[in-house]
Structure formats: structure tokens, C-alpha cells
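**Backbone geometry record:**
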Amino acid sequence: MPMKAQRGTGEQDGPDTTAPTIQTVQRAALILGSFTVGKPHMSLNEITARLGASKATAHRYTKALRAANLLRYDERTSLYSLGPQVLTLATAARAGLPIVAAAEPYMEDLVRRIDETIVLSVWDGESPTVVRSVDNTDHMVRISVRVGSRLDLTSSAQGRIFLAFLPPDQVPTLPRSVRKSAELTEELEAIRQHGLSVNSPAVNGVRTIAAPIFEGDKISGTLAVVGTTATVSDDVKSPMAQALLETARALSQRLGTSDGG
């Protein structure tokens, strides 16, 4: 006697209607993922080759991604680059990093202790990027740092912290930067010794002190005090600097380092 197959409740008739949608998402992700720090611009021919599709298909995808501000097109060079919406998404992604949630109470406590703006930055593959800022509101002059700001690698206190503690292969420009500046070489050695970097730009009267945050034996971020030259000392042994260092080490312990950074 022939038996009739039973269809499970999760089984669907006909072809998978989601397949075209999945392919669309995969292709869009492939295009966006093709851009890197070393390859920030691509031609339509290069995108077509990455897709393994026709030029007409590649053009349809780039047009749709441009409409969503995920791609930018330079008519002068005929090259594509990532659009401004990617930066917004990147900022949101960084805001969701575990370090941001973990750092929040430490930053709030440090603001109460020293009465200055506290900034958290992470490494974005090329430079430090601000992912959280807790502003001091009690001073006559209020220092505010925009979340999403990318900081200079060699001149900012946060940048120098990353230069001092990141593996050399993660900072390809480091050997060239060090060769060009004896002062930078000495500063990086000093940072490794006392765990702090101080930056005092003469042009704006703002002073920053930064300390590393570690997860295990790897640096995962920097915590920084940002104030004016009148309220923040440039002495790494000052009570304010030591309070920052103490907080960064406590946060590192919270994130799993064995020695407090």
C-alpha cells in the first residue's frame, strides 16, 4: 500500500521566495566589504569583478547604495567610496561595544571626582575614534567632545597611547613616524613606563591626559581627561592624572586584565 508523505508544519510549498532578497543583501554586503583602509576607492570595473556579475548589475547595485548614502561617487575620478551613512552605522556599532557599557559607571564616577570631561576612545583600524563622552557641566568653560570624532594618531594623547601599546603590525605607519621624530620615540617610551600621555595644544588651550584600557594583555581603548590648561596639570604625577590612571586600571580589571594594565 503506497504511503503518503506527511508535510511538516515548517515546510513551505514552491521555491524559496526569500532567495532573491538574500542574494541582494549578500551582494550589497560584498560591495561594501570590498572597501578597506588600504583600498578606500574603487572603480565600477573593480566592483563588477568583485561581484562576478555583469556591469549593468553592478551599476544597479551602486546606484541603490548611493541612494541610501552608503556609497559616494566622485564624477571627477569616476571612483566610488563609502558614503556618510556608513560612518553613522559605524558610530552606532561602536556605541554597542561591550567596553562602552562597561566604562559608563567608571566615567561618571571620574567626572564626579575630578570635575572634568571624560572621553572614551577605541581603535578603528587607522586612528582613535571617540565612542563616549561624559561632559563636565560645572565649569564656566565647558569642554565637549563629539562622539564619532577621529583623533590624530601622533599628536593626540589618545593616539600616542595606541601607538605605545598596539602591536606594530596594526600600525603600519608607526616605523616611519618614529624615524621622523625623536621626540615621539622618547614620548612612547615614557608612556610605556608610566602609563599616561599628556597633550597640550598651544593653539586652543585644551589639555588632554590619556591612559590605556586593556582587555587581557591587549589594549582595547583609551580613557582621557579633557580640560583647559588652567584646570588640568601636565604633571603625570598630579592627583588628577593618578585618578585617571587608577580608573583606567580598575576598568581594565573589570574587562579581564590580569595586572590592571
Q: What stands out?
A: The two ends are 74 Å apart (CA to CA). The chain has two domains: 19-82, 89-255.
